[in-house]
Amino acid sequence: MNARAAAPDAVLLAGPTASGKSDWALALAARVPLEIVSVDSAQVYRGFDIGSAKPSPALRASLPHHLVDIRDPVQTYSAGEFVADALRAIRGIQSRGRLPLLVGGTMLYYRALVHGIAPLPGADPALRRELDERAARLGWPALHAELTALDPESAGRIHPNDAQRIQRALEVQRLSGQPISAGQRATTPEHGLRLQRWALVPGDRAALAQRIAARFDAMLAAGFVDEVRALHSRGDLSASTPALRAVGYRQIWEHLSGLVGLDAAVERAKAATRQLARRQLTWIRADADWRSVDPLLPGARERWLEAVVATLRQRGPAPG
């Protein structure tokens, strides 16, 4: 694990869910003055605490976390908004003489930050209504199959039930005549930051699946169903609300809506989380500039800490 010569402006730590990103981030925080920027599309929402593994208020009081609890669940939050907010947070952290550490598993956000935002056509309400109507008749997996024929690269990163992203990909294809993946490949970032990118990639997939199951069981024991029940009882949210498409929340919402029993919802949630982990790993493997480390290997975290700290020494003495 060799450190690169150039000192980074920020360090990125990605990886599939349950790979240990938060623990590794805290280990680095014990050695380096830093602040964390969350790269998590669920942690941005207030009330999405247990199911998103949001850091506790006590931890956030001792170690600043940015882009947490910045939206109400009824609101939307885009990759473009994330980039603008993340860059603002990074600049602020730098001004305080600390290291910006970006941690999370929303790979779309990472891609937007690292590679830039594609100049894609805006939303077309009429076309979206048409796609919604077709999905109501045929189901989103059928539209995902259409997307696979048109843009297999994007379809490979989108779950067959991810209505929002399937709709957007088909919308861009129809409006521009080009697959959304082509526009995304053509982008370049404008921020000019040196970003050191690390990805936790467990080599033992069975062990990762066990960690995912244990983590979800721990969430249930911590009151996850009650958390989703509180969201369900608000009255202004529905299954189509973008925030409720988050893995785990969606399946428990279906249970509270009377569609499935709790045991079935839990099994669906665990399966969906495993699928999410596979998609996250697909994103990572598609970009060779992620430096991968297996978090399950003995001594891996210590070697990573030493590598990161070595590059940070290029920045001069650590601030007090």
What brief labels describe this structure?
globular; 320 residues; Rossmann fold; 14 helices; Histone, subunit A; alpha/beta
Would you give an account of this structure?
This protein has 14 helices and six strands. The chain has helices at residues 21-29, 57-62, 79-95, 107-115, 125-138, 140-150, 152-155, 163-176, 180-185, 205-221, 224-232, 249-256, 262-285, 300-312, and strands spanning 10-14, 34-38, 65-66, 99-103, 195-200, 291-293. The chain has a six-stranded parallel β-sheet with strand order 3-2-4-1-5-6, with helices on both faces. α2 links the parallel β2 (34-38) and β3 (65-66). The longest helix has 24 residues, at 262-285.
Label the structural class: alpha/beta
Outline type: globular
* End-to-end separation: 27 Å
Helix content: 40-55%
* String of helices and strands: EHEHEHEHHHHHHEHHHHEH
CATH architecture of the largest domain: 3-Layer(aba) Sandwich
Q: Enumerate how many helices there are, as a single number.
A: 14
Brief synopsis:
With 320 residues, the protein is an alpha/beta fold.
